[in-house]
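TL;DR need structure tokens for one chain.
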Amino acid sequence: MTGIVKIDEEVITTETFITLLKLNGRFETLMEEILKDKLTVHAAKSMGIQLGDDEIQDRANIFRRAHGLQRASETNEYFASMGITLDDFEVFIVDALYQEKMNAKIIEGGAVADYFQANLPKFESMIVSHIVMDSEGAAREILSVLREDEESFADLAREHSEADTKSTGGYIGKVMRGAMSPEIEAKVFNAEEGDLLGPFPTGDGTYYEIFRVDSKRQAQLDQETEGEICRLLRDEWLARKAREHRIEML
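>> reply
TL;DR here they are.
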């Protein structure tokens, strides 16, 4: 077992560190990210993606400047203090460059626009507000008032809602498909601007929600949507790549 840090006579080992990550629920997330990165690097190498010495040197220089390491001696001391070798550093830099080039290749050739066109409904969104009540009866009473006076929605939310959004008059904002339960999503995305919907029980049945559709937004390939599509394309690609390898926990 390798020690990481010492407090008086107590040594925190790598084994203790990993155990704590597992118990804190962070191990799986961290391991998943590492596996994704390694799969990407493997694929880049298999495809014959090339890296130039200048690219590697430039990226290393960016790292050094970001960490205030101006001289070679400072760099050596910095890595030595963490038990990291220069070879470890080079692998880190090279892998990062492989990942960037492979990720760029995944979305090249109009892949983002093609995915967007093939999945337009997925990127539609609604702007919604809600009021959350602690019983169905109370929710129905609020709904009755709203049907008589729809302009009172924000005031009623501030006065009666049990949700944190009461401070903003019940305003939730932009909601994409997949963010709500299927039953509520179907009704919200088929509603018209200004429609009042509900009350719907929350997942555990403790509260009841009334929704108002503030506006409908057609799918647009903006920067946010493009970023989401890039993530989806990478996840789908990684899932395919993972099936090509034997991955096992040791």
